[in-house]
């Protein structure tokens, strides 16, 4: 049974709209322009891939929402060439701004996409392969690169022996050279980088592993297999690289008000406690001597309570407050400092009383 056109047209034409979008964007990347630059070659493939992914997703969504059990036969029968062309025109106006940069539309590409949709999608279900690789030739199969889709170094199955990226992999650009992962080096990413050793090596596989933290270079995993010790490490009697204790040196590498803290392969300088003049570690019990305002008590620099002395804060109406390492003198309650003397604070009500008294006396 035939559905009414008004309700059936939207779901029916939706896949075609995706085709239009696809066509429009791809047309911005005509093969004639692909030789322009390396960047453009890679971008051309990335764009084609992106469009195919969105197209596939769009088709999947449309099928789920509108076709349910599928009505492809009816759809193909109803969708006329005239409707497709009309939608092409409509979308060329609306969709072209989504793609970059604008360029003239080629009839040839328009036809490629239509051809695939109506005639080839069963025979070539992989639209990416058919369109991007085989037809408009902006991409290459995985593991190959360049104009002729040559195999990457180390072969297309495992480019760069699985230890790096092949330049231009899957695109019509690049030179197939390997960009090795950090652990690997060499043309085929089979050699180990500085600081790594070969833990497995045969004709096809190479595994490089990081040296022990103590080694600059090495032949194996432990600190006895270093070829050279890293800075901050020193070779001991057993020919192993061990941490150098910088803090044990006769002259401390730290400042006078700091203590030295040894760490694996390095050291750090930390501030002494406020009560110390020089120290050997953290806290007031590691002082070499005490700062003024502190006194050594039980091998610990302790605050001196100056307020216990009769010689401090001797002005009238003045109190002493002890602080860590010092003390301060403040006026007692209801007194305030005026020109170095503590005077009684006169409250607002008292002022008013005094003012009224003056007025009464005068008038
Ligand atoms: Ca150290």
From TrEMBL:
- According to the UniProt entry, the coiled-coil residues are none
Gene3D superfamilies, per the entry = Hormone Receptor, Insulin-like Growth Factor Receptor 1, Chain A, domain 2, Laminin
**Keywords for the protein's UniProt record, in alphabetical order:** Disulfide bond, EGF-like domain, Isomerase, Redox-active center, Repeat, Signal
Q: What's one GO-annotated cellular component?
A: extracellular space
Q: Where is the signal peptide?
A: 1-35
Kindly give the InterPro entries that the UniProt entry links to this protein. ECM_structural_protein, EGF, EGF-like_Ca-bd_dom, EGF-type_Asp/Asn_hydroxyl_site, EGF_Ca-bd_CS, Furin_repeat, Growth_fac_rcpt_cys_sf, LE_dom
Enzyme class, top EC level, equals isomerase
Q: What is its EC number?
A: 5.3.4.1
What role does this protein play?
A: Protein disulfide isomerase. Promotes the localization of acetylcholine receptors (AChRs) to the plasma membrane.
**Similarity-based family:** Belongs to the CRELD family.
Instruction: Kindly provide the name given to this protein in its UniProt entry.
Output: protein disulfide-isomerase
Query: Lineage, please?
Result: Eukaryota, Metazoa, Chordata, Craniata, Vertebrata
